[in-house]
Amino acid sequence: MKLTVWTYEGPPHVGAMRVATAMKGLHYVLHAPQGDTYADLLFTMIERRNHRPPVTYTTFEGRDLGEDTAGIFKQTCQDAYDRFKPQAIIVGASCTAELIQDDPGGLAETMDIPVPVVALELPSYQRKENFGSDETFYQLVKALAGPVEKTPEITANLIGPLALGFRHRDDIEEIKGLLYEMGIGINVVAPFDATPHDLTRLGAAHVNILMYPEHAETAARHMERALGIPYTRTVPIGVGATHDFVAEVARLCGVEPKKDLSRLRQPWWSKSVDSTYLTGKRVFLFGDATHVKTAARIARDEMGFEVVGLGCYNREFARDIRKLGQEFGLEPLITDDYLEVEKAIEDAAPEMILGTQMERHIGKRLGIPCAVISAPVHVQDFPARYSPQMGWEGANVIFDTWIHPLVMGLEEHLLAMFREDFEFHDEAGASHHGGHAPRSVAEAPVAEVAPEGRISGKMKDEVAPEATGSDVMVWLADAERELKKIPFFVRGKAKRNTEKFAAERGVTEISVDTLYEAKAHYAR
Amino acid sequence: MNRPANIPAATCRDVPVLKERGQREVFCGLTGIIWLHRKMQDAFFLVVGSRTCAHLLQSAAGVMIFAEPRFGTAILEETDLAGMADANDELDREVARLLSRRPDIKQLFLVGSCPSEVIKLDLARAAERLTQIHAPHVRVLNYSGSGIETTFTQGEDACLASMVPVLPRTEARELLLVGALPDVVEDQAVGLLRKMGIGPIRVLPAPRSADAPGVGPNTVFACLQPFLGDTAAALERRGARMIQAPFPFGEEGTTLWLKAIADEFGVDDATFEAVTAAPRARARTAIANASAHLRGKTIFFMPDSQLEIPLARFLTRECGMEAVEIGQPFIHKGLVGPDLDLIPAGPTISEGQDVDKQLDRVRAARPDLTVCGLGLANPLEAEGLTTKWAIELVFTPVHFYDQAGDLAGLFSRPLRRRDLLKLEAAE
């Protein structure tokens, strides 16, 4: 038993729904109690889908339990077939139905349904949403995709994009463009908008583009083994990764790595002097492993940030993230415990978070700007405009998205110059953002204790005990006033660095001198 | 031969109910935690369930409420099910950890879910045990919010009903108002009743456990929401008596509800008139303005919040709408009877759901407005039908006189929007 407040991933049957809802002509019959239908609104509200997810639930009730829930399942399955006439059906159980052990797969097999029925075994008490999507897509591919004749021209399958994905809709267009430049055609895109019939043609492609390993790696491996289709390892998010991706595809397909860079603006935007202020910005990365991996490279190599913390919530990819952590000299955080992530971010005191919608809320609470790089998604992650993450345009989009939450370069200096201006002060936040300024964490305790002339170093202990390193450290009043003059977006870092500096030297009273000695020490 | 003549039923209380069983597109009772935890400020709701329960709670409200919420899910894991870990020991450990982190918590609700019920985890006994461990600081109660036992708003009913047996006993003649309403609305209700000289007035649930009302043979109570049947029965078992009335939606509903209480407390007509005249007039004006877009329009209620019958009464009688079908997850005539009495026969009254068949009826009737859950709204809009999300009705202050105009506005806004948008070429 584990206490959970917010979750990064839903149960595995929601992963199966994401595959089913992305596809056309497929129906999912889900053995589940009343209430599990809530999952429909994820698709109709967050993603604004204009149709119901193709899912029929048995919605059994308490009074059915002593009776014939298996009968209810069979009736529901038959009714769903008769009403929707899908090309194929997937059947499975949600967490509660798993406990009553009706075996939807076995029941459906006895039923003479004249289309393929694929049974899903998704252990709800062990696994989560991403496992559900990956396993469902794999089972569908295994059941439907056999060896077929290759297309005469070189073609690729794009695999992995599905419903409720982070910018999947637009990534597909971007990848199609990259392949078009190399003269590679598209065989099947799946699960997104694919029919079960389309899946039977997967084997005709020359290469699989594994867009999202979280959702299609098992299927990619299966197709490599069973159908002899190689798949790509590089996920083309970022300028460098996109170059590498083009090279990898060219190699796998034996074609020229042709590129059209005419729309790629990111490198110049990053090199131009206006971007100097981005240098060494301390960022914390958290999300699904694929997006974190790609974001880490962009942050360091293409934006000039310093990565001060990273991690992922999907344990399936823990090994990749550990390797990444080694490369960056960081202890990676692999957890789906939101409170643990919040704690890690608080301790690292980054200048920006690159995370999910959950980290956006953490950032709001801590007064740290955040840009979203990964699922779990929110209605805001489905913009009306074209907004991919992959390919050349994706690199442009990421540059804009990541700098938007920050205070811009010259503005940063002006804030420092005119600290006491009643309108143009740091609490007002960045000028291109409306609404409220983020509340600074460091601010509240300072103001509270200030009248007494001294402030205990202990006040930060609740949040970051190891940061002070000493129980007896105090801030002298003038040092504390000086600290307040530092703009809010770097104040937390300055405080932390000073305390660390003082602790290392056994200094128990922090003066203005200590503050500036620490500043000199950490200057870069 | 001896069949009674087929006399058309006069009101909806007497019409035959269309009962359906099939796929139900409704939330389970856990959803009520989203508003209950805001209302009871020293309570924590601990769902003992699965990842699905946790996911529902975070998805159902549409947004995550990111003050550290006073609810959470103890997620059952493989080891709990396989008997490798004693689920009760695990629960005790998680509760101890939670209470040590949140010393402000005075009431803890263990909320049963579908999985905890299927594996027959005895949360009543767990609550007793934990109460002993954590007394006197924390009282632990339990109720079921599972989908196999409860729909959507029934979760609030189950929660309040679980509190009744532990309410202190009182012999005082008191008025008890039952149901979790936004504070602003609750204050209005109490204010109006006080002005009539009625008191003492107590409310269940109280915002803090120390203020819990007493109950006894001299307690009379009135429900604020039409889904509190189990709570009403539990109060009656403690000797309290229910005042029946239509529910306080709109000018008419509010007046009838207040009048029933005023009569119980012997308030004379002149006083009643003096207290209600001004807010009644305000409500009528507000409704007249807000209902301009509703007059003559048809409405179809999919079963969702259990508010459907009282709202249909308000919309048909005060806003000039015509109801095509009024669906509720279940119908408790002991509660909604007075509302049904006021709706002339005509609309189909349906109980339960077979969602695909019901959608066929919606498509056939093509109502001007369909009230439905979030899973159905956009798909129906895409078919050219205008919808109103039902969940907004339980999250928004809509009761009593000064919200009557807002209530009408919730229904007219989608219709006004449809009229406003010009998304085609001008030619």
Q: How do you describe this structure in short?
A:
Chain A is an alpha/beta fold and 524 residues long. Helix content of chain A is 45%, strand content 13%. The longest helix of chain A is centred in the last third of the chain and has 17 residues.
Feature tags:
heterodimer; A: 524 residues; alpha/beta; Rossmann fold; 4-stranded parallel β-sheet; 23 helices; 16 strands; 45% helix; globular; B: 427 residues; 3 domains; 14 strands; 16% strand
Describe the model:
The complex is a heterodimer of chains A (524) and B (427). In chain A, 45% of the residues lie in helices and 13% in strands. Chain A is of the alpha/beta class and 524 residues long. Chain A has a 5-stranded parallel beta sheet, with helices on both faces. In chain A, helix 13 packs parallel to helix 14 (318-328), helix 15 (338-348) packs across helix 16 and helix 21 (477-485) crosses helix 23 (512-522). The radius of gyration of chain A is 26 Å and the shape is globular. The model of chain A is unreliable at 435-470 (pLDDT under 50). With 427 residues, chain B is of the alpha/beta class. Chain B has helices at residues 33-39, 51-60, 78-81, 87-101, 114-118, 123-134, 154-163, 183-195, 229-237, 250-264, 269-290, 308-318, 333-342, 355-365, 374-382, 391-395, 404-420, and strands at residues 18-21, 43-49, 71-75, 107-112, 139-144, 174-178, 201-204, 219-223, 241-242, 298-301, 322-328, 348-353, 369-372, 387-389. Chain B is globular and about 65 Å long. Chain B has 3 domains: 29-150, Rossmann fold; 174-281, Rossmann fold (3-Layer(aba) Sandwich); 287-420, Nitrogenase molybdenum iron protein domain (Rossmann fold). The model of chain B has no long low-confidence stretch (mean pLDDT 93). Chains A and B meet through strand 1, helix 2, helix 3, helix 4 and helix 5 of A and helix 2, strand 3, helix 3, helix 4 and helix 5 of B. Strand 1 (2-4) of chain A pairs antiparallel with strand 3 of chain B.
